[in-house]
Design a protein that fits this description.
It is a single chain. The chain is an alpha+beta fold and 77 residues long. Helices cover 40% and strands 27% of the residues. The chain is built from 3 helices and 4 strands; from the N terminus they run E-H-E-H-E-E-H. Helix 1 (12-28) links the parallel strand 1 and strand 2 (32-37). Helix 1 (12-28) packs across helix 3 (69-76). The chain is globular, with a radius of gyration of 11 Å.
Length: 77
């Protein structure tokens, strides 16, 4: 099971990234768990300085932007 983490404090972009990641994972047909990481210390523990950010299985894939659903599908596959 893939662990998809959306790192952000809950701003509109962070919420949008969570929606996009959820859609991309559903499209991919994988088993996944979507986790929203909102604690700033935990976010900084990933080495992330700009949100929103997306991590897959603890590995940060993008920061500071909203990737397309297609880009997210590539990141999680």
């Amino acid at each position: 099971m893939k662990k998809i983490q959306v790192l952000g404090t809950g701003c509109p972009k962070c919420k949008k990234l969570a929606e996009l990641a959820d859609t991309a994972a559903k499209n991919s047909g994988i088993e996944y768990e979507l986790i929203k990481v909102t604690d700033i210390n935990e976010i900084m523990g990933f080495g992330v300085m700009m949100t929103p950010a997306l991590a897959v299985d603890g590995d940060v894939k993008c920061t500071g932007k909203l990737p397309s659903i297609e880009e997210i599908e590539k990141m999680i596959s």
